[in-house]
Amino acid sequence: MTIPTLEFHDGNCIPQLGFGVWQITGGRTVPTVAAALEAGYRHIDTAPAYGNERGVGKAIRDSGIARHDLFVVTKLDTSDMGRARAALEHSLEELGLEHVDLYLIHWPVPRHRLRFAAWEAMQQAQSDGLVRSIGVSNFTETYLQELVDLGGAVPVVNQVECHPGYQQRALQHYAAELGIATEAYSPLGMGSGPKHATVARIAEQHSRTPAQVILRWHLQQGRIAIPKTATPFRIVENLALTGFALSAADMAAIDSLNTGRYLGWDPEHV
Fold first, then answer.
1. I want to staple 212 with a disulfide (CB 3.0 to 4.6 A). Which of 24, 55, 90, 208 is the partner?
2. Residues 172, 203 contacting (CB under 8 angstroms)
3. Active-site amino acid positions
4. Does the pLDDT at position 68 exceed 80?
């Protein structure tokens, strides 16, 4: 399938559906990422904290896919806030790449003022061609505004937990007003979303899987989504999002599943 793209405010475009590799480590990394690339994914999301950048890089090289056809994302680890440039260069070495398409501050870290210096270093890295776009992950409204108030670059994206049970609507609206796109990690609610009776009913009506319905919901609301799976048939299945569209009633029904409870970690306490 042709994966739709979303244009950032800096003019760069990102495939709206990506492949997340959190918890895919060791000997599973290369074959899993290779399977995703073979299936048609061109957006791969990794991080030093995942311990798999080297494997991701090998899978990319082995794929034979032209670099300009790929969108590679990695992140600045909390422990590296004070050495952002060196951390980025190490990630590039692990990945075997000359640049990444998107570099994110992984966590805002309350009371960690070094994130401001890190953001300045990331802007310089962008100017130097080591990254094409820069953004953040797990930032609340307060932390987003702090970066904007610095007067430099505005993040192109905020990658956050987002799924039918935890939609973070206020945060998404706030980010959108600043021109910041929202990218959903754990877009299926760590497996909880597809189990909901409402999602199952909509999936049956469209002759689709519950996971496909939720991912379609994300895309139709203008989000980027990065589902993660190491199961071969699900890797392929999650890409099959063309040929159907959710109605306004379908979208509203999924919207109604919001509980406001996160499944991962609270950015204020990590």
1. 208
2. no
3. 50
4. yes
